[in-house]
Amino acid sequence: MNEQDFDPVDVEELLLQLREIVETARSVPMSASVMVNQDDIIGLLEEISGALPEELRRARWLLKERDEFLSQARRDAEEIIEAARVQAARMVERTEIVREARRTSQQVIDDADATARQLKHEAEDYIDQKLASFEVVLERTMQTVHKGRERLQVVIEPTPEELAEEEEAMEASGFFDQDAI
Question: Residue 71: how many CA atoms within 13 Å on its side-chain side?
Answer without folding.
Answer: 6
